[in-house]
User: Fold these one by one.
Assistant:
Number 1:
Amino acid sequence: MPELPEVETTRRGIASHLAQATVRQVIVRTPRLRWPIPELPIAGQPLLAIERRAKYLLFRFPNGTLLVHLGMTGSLRVLTRPQAVQAHEHVDIEWVDGRILRYRDPRRFGAFLWTDSDPEQHPLLARLAPEPLCAQFDTDWLTRKLARRSTPIKVAIMDAQCVVGVGNIYASESLFRAGISPLRPAASLNANEIARLLAEIRSTLAAAIAAGGTTLRDYVDSDGKAGYFSLQCAVYDRAGLPCPHCGQVVAQTRQAQRATYWCPHCQH
DNA sequence: AGGAAAACCTGCGTGC
DNA sequence: TGCACGCAGGTTTTCC
């Protein structure tokens, strides 16, 4: 489900409602997510901040950090009053003011993890590429990461050690906007193309975050679909339809077991 | 080591 | 209507 913009939209959607809140208790109805949910020692602890690193949400507490990943189908919303538990609503974090942060995840590819040390050093975060909207994510970085790699560029930009936050939709969309074929070996991109791709990854993610902000549905007391917002895609999921730029037919293939969409006329 | 494939799950649409 | 199948916005683990 969520790529970086959806995770960031979730973060913003719930953060203001949980500022300064203190945990009363955690209720785990289904401990089996991507990994078993460990003991979360946060009862009585005040939430200091909700941050984001790549597609992970970091709930900062005085004694450690709760790492949450939404996987493919995870979502979070804040309830201001008790609401009947629906299917796939696996975790509640109950706050002393009565609010509930409720996690739903039908496919259970998501994760709840705990660390009491620097979360950046956590094995799942330590090797991630820099944030794509930060200065450290630059052409030097991308050039180094793409060098000598034979893997297709579309697969490479979905590798979190190369680029974080770009999932299957925005990989196709960024390559379309950069005019680069997803089939190209990563190392075959020249400096110009790398710069273009980097700029389009940035602007695609930034635009999607902005769209999330404008079409943001309520993350409080919503119907459980919080976390999704409509995306207008140029090529993703548009196989056989006209390319919005040239009108030629959008093509589809499969790379690393994921669908890829592109315009063979506009992308080289 | 890099790269390809399998693995973890449930739900939904399609076609027979 | 039922059922098999393929596919879904992710990422780690395993295997070659």
Note: The radius of gyration of chain A is 20 Å.
Number 2:
Amino acid sequence: MAGNWRTIRAEILARITSGVWAPGTALPGEVALALGFGVARATVNRAMRDLAEEGIIERRRRAGSRVRPAPVRQARFDIPLVRRDIEDRGAAYAYRLLLSAVGPAPSEVRDRLGLPEGAAMRHVLCLHLADGRPWQAEDRWISLSLLPEAAAADFSAAGPNEWLVARVPYSGVEISILAAPAEAHIAGPLACAPGTALLVVERATRWDGQPVTFVRLWHAPGHRMTTRY
Amino acid sequence: MAGNWRTIRAEILARITSGVWAPGTALPGEVALALGFGVARATVNRAMRDLAEEGIIERRRRAGSRVRPAPVRQARFDIPLVRRDIEDRGAAYAYRLLLSAVGPAPSEVRDRLGLPEGAAMRHVLCLHLADGRPWQAEDRWISLSLLPEAAAADFSAAGPNEWLVARVPYSGVEISILAAPAEAHIAGPLACAPGTALLVVERATRWDGQPVTFVRLWHAPGHRMTTRY
DNA sequence: GAGTGGTCTAGACCACGCC
DNA sequence: GCGTGGTCTAGACCACTCG
């Protein structure tokens, strides 16, 4: 019985999937398991914590650990920079600026960021292509109150994403995934019929509580986000 | 300087967001940090591991840790049982069986599970409602080679999900999220026009390498999956 | 109150990757 | 090689919560 925590984890998981410890069952305490496996309690703890993070088991002080009756399925998606995403798939990345303006934002954008009416924002509409074919349309709004230099930034060669990443290191984010029909100004660039069902990712970013940017990413028809585990 | 790992983590994060350690920068080694913070190395390790899991920093043996130049944005979504999801939102859950059959599966389903042509499957189409309104349509296929008793299972009162959870404890899963127009047999139950853009979650489940079930979950119009961090 | 998980410590050895 | 992160140990104290 090897003493590494992955082995312990695998062994515990095996006993769960094989039915030795059925869903709802209370697992032995950490001390008991450590003794049984012949390892330190910290090692068992590491394994159990991992199982808990994945939603396999449920842990509570005093009450002990138990197998989750109904597994909380979790899907974790990586959302890299579009450029990386495309290049990682072995395709050639290309970028095209479609629209650039400064002005007041529509209410739906303001609401998502908690901005007052009439707040000036930089608005950018651009297109990311993979091997010359439309991959993703980006509808970007940047608050000028926190990033006034965004008003004059040049987005003709590279997207606002890379510009922002270099300026706003790490921040609070709210991500939504939804389906929406292609609006007129999106259908054109994405080369699809208006009304086509598209996968949309919305992201509202804050830095230190201040609204920074809101983006709506329209993926080309047929796009799917996939994860395995 | 408190000695808990969350404090250490927060302090490191603060130095990153504040620009003390810019993206791409190499962080001090664990020993140095432990000394600086006046804690054990294991505590620093715990904090750094957490930051690495979230994609904030990058760790490699010998090379050390560095701030990720381009943050790998991660979105983690919980996908609970529909019933729980609806009840957690304070709505009344209801269930309706729409179709139940046994027969060969279409090729698109077989492909996702790696099943041979003509393989018999249990097919169930059902509807989940929140406060009486359509919430999600479930198009479910269950392989009879691994679960022959599924042929005779009764899904008139409760959905196949809960039936499966009790039988196939924990297994490998592939999840996809996509947008699709409402097909004719889906639009009716969901009370929307055919062609409406819907958010679809597909899930292919395997147990010990054996295909178990494939499900397509059609969410009602306007549904969005959201996560914050 | 007592038991369980949560965490910290101090020390040690190992494995991997640069040099 | 040799330094860095990865992990394990043995022991300890704490915090929460159930009975």
Note: The CA atoms of residues 169 and 207 of chain A lie 9 Å apart.
